[in-house]
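Preliminary data (for renewal application), zinc ion complex.
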Amino acid sequence: MISYLARWFKARSTTPARRRMGRFLGIAIAFVCMLAVTLQTGWAQSLPPSQVHPIPAMLTQAVQRLEDAEVGPGDYFDAIERKAVGYLIWSKFPVTVAIDPLGGDRWKLQVTAAVVEWQRYFPLKIVSTPETADIRIQSKRLALKPDPKTGKLPRFRSAETHYDVLVSEGSDAKYLNHRMTIDLASGQADGVILSVARHEVGHAIGLWGHSPNPEDIMYFSQVSKAPLISSRDLRTLYRVYGQPTRLGWAIK
Ligand SMILES: [Zn+2]
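Predicted structure:
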């Protein structure tokens, strides 16, 4: 079972760089908490308006190639969540991805392969600076927590992806941005790491929801024969990138 959580990052490190980030994230947390109130009370002037960004050319071309080659079975756009900040999409490209060096060679190889698959359709760049990367993929053993109601252990979770909303300083203004963190369990079979990474990177680049179709990588559960990135996955991503968001825009 692959699940994801939206939760707010807590800066724990004591390095100056992380302290600076903690301050920004602290602003972000206050900001987001306020968001729920401001939207209800009409004080939303300080937030960026929800607007559409240009769609990455690479994604447009990938979808155009599909229309030529395949009879379209549609998409699962209706399953994608729109958050209070809007759709969780990127507007500065390439989107940078840092892969945890502590994951071990086998884990890193599979995770990298998943990112490379996405690079055929979406502008991603692998970097070695997790502090500033847009997407961080971390090797982690995820603890099984008993269900508070039943006391039973849930099914093993291979991965979780969560996002933080933060305010970052641009040269001219402050911007509302986000970052994604994928916690991906090590110690799984190579094929499982690859298919889980493919799915979680899909969440991190904007597919914040699950397909009802087991032939899509964004199906909610792992299947015995892991699918490749499907035309429905790409069409859905393309539609998501045509939607408005508050992310990536200047705060007035
Ligand atoms: Zn998922």
